Fold UDP-glucose 6-dehydrogenase.
Amino acid sequence: MSRVTVMGTGYVGLITGVCLAEIGHSVTCIDIAPEKIEQLRRGISPIFEPGLTDLIEENLRSGNLWFTNKPEEAIPQSEFIFIAVGTPQREDGSADLTYIQQAAKTIGAHLSILNTVIVTKSTVPVGTNGKIEEWIKDSLHATIPFDVVSNPEFLREGSAIQDTFQADRIVIGSENEESAQRVAALYEPMNIPIFNTNRESAELIKYASNAFLATKISFINEIANLSEKLGADISDVAYGMGLDHRIGTAFLKAGLGYGGSCFPKDTNALVQIAGGVDHRFELLESVIKVNQQQPLKLLNKAVQHFGSLQGKETAILGLAFKPNTDDMREAASITLIEHLLAAGAKVRAYDPIAAGHAQKIFGDRIEYSGSIEECLHQADMAFIATEWEEIKLLPLSIYQKQMKHPVIFDGRNCYSLAEAERHQIDYYSIGRKTSTFIRK
Ligand SMILES: NC(=O)C1=CN([C@@H]2O[C@H](COP(=O)(O)OP(=O)(O)OC[C@H]3O[C@@H](n4cnc5c(N)ncnc54)[C@H](O)[C@@H]3O)[C@@H](O)[C@H]2O)C=CC1
Ligand SMILES: O=C(O)[C@H]1O[C@H](OP(=O)(O)OP(=O)(O)OC[C@H]2O[C@@H](n3ccc(=O)[nH]c3=O)[C@H](O)[C@@H]2O)[C@H](O)[C@@H](O)[C@@H]1O
């Protein structure tokens, strides 16, 4: 059992803290946001993540997990300090290291002589772990031994706990073998393959992994755009490609493009990191451009269908950037809604859990529906922006029943073309033939 402090109770900090507590370590999570700590002490998770509340409650009860906003109550007693604070995007696309620097200074101000290993979980530009070391040194009041190790995080929102306990690999980037072994020992009960490397490589593995997955998505979206023009069906094309084990089926789902708190931010950051060493990352620049244009392609289909969108009652099904999360950061739904509003459409939206976030973004510029049926009622057109189970499995007869005449712009390819035809629905999707019903 080791004593661990986790700095930051966002997605990564909370999941890291809770999972380390679950395997028997004594974990204190600290945050500068007092309201989060207050909630967490009462067992309330500030984020929506399946299974997380149970794990928080369980580990609070067992005494393995504590929450505080006072670093002095945690850092001096810890053998490991995980940094899991945010690294948001600056205006120019580069990563903002303000929170990282603040966390490093806090660590330096409270570090004791336990030969503590600082473990960086946050996604940080190559070279940052070296800077963290310097920032900590600059804040120390005496000569105190410590080490800084890179340990990037690969979890996905919505399946974060499973991703942690069944991770493909744990990457540990260290300049010192003993520190690397100590971090590896922490994770031993999880029985996950460990890959050891130096800090710079570990930092780059994180950005390269996200950028590669983003590239797969933009690639398949381009093939989808091509499929539409060539009469191919993207579902079959992606499936047929994925049968080659060298390609694999994962991340070949065409749609509205990638959103979320990380792919857009990290692809932009990697372009900046490359630029910093005089390398123009043209491939990644194109990936980003394709992604920005993808939701507009579906909107254009609506413009072509109706001529003008002025006054059109529009239902948006799904707001979150993907299912099983209430996160709307960089969600394709935002692009869709902003463009629809600009074109004069009247928008109402439904999402099982993300409406609260939407309210902060759109206020009363759109309406919020309490159910799918209410959202679709008397609508001229419906956009499917997130493939929540209840949206994906919604019978097409509900669209027929609720809408004026069912016209669906499906950004997540939830239905088969045959089904849409059977229900006599004007059905537009991504990378497939349009199914238009000629009204008598
Ligand atoms: N969200 C995700 O699914 C993943 C995120 N990452 C990376 O992990 C990092 C954290 O991401 P999120 O958890 O989403 O961030 P977040 O922004 O949701 O949470 C960060 C938390 O850190 C707290 N914080 C800021 N400064 C602090 C300090 N000095 N001391 C203590 N707490 C402090 C904030 O109040 C906030 O609660 C980012 O670098 C992100 O790129 C990596 C993999 C997955
Ligand atoms: O660094 C991060 O924060 C994380 O970013 C992603 O995780 P996440 O953003 O939670 O979600 P994903 O499931 O990867 O989906 C990202 C976006 O890509 C889209 N996507 C995904 C897969 C696909 O085939 N097609 C597709 O359009 C999703 O709709 C979503 O908008 C990575 O998958 C994680 O490994 C990484 O740790």
Remarks:
- The chain has two domains: 3-197, 198-439.
- The first helix runs from residue 11 to 22.
- Residues 7-13, 30-33, 36, 84-87, 99, 102-103, 106, 122-123, 153, 155, 157, 261-262 surround NAI (ligand 1) (CB under 6 Å).
- The chain has a mean pLDDT of 96.
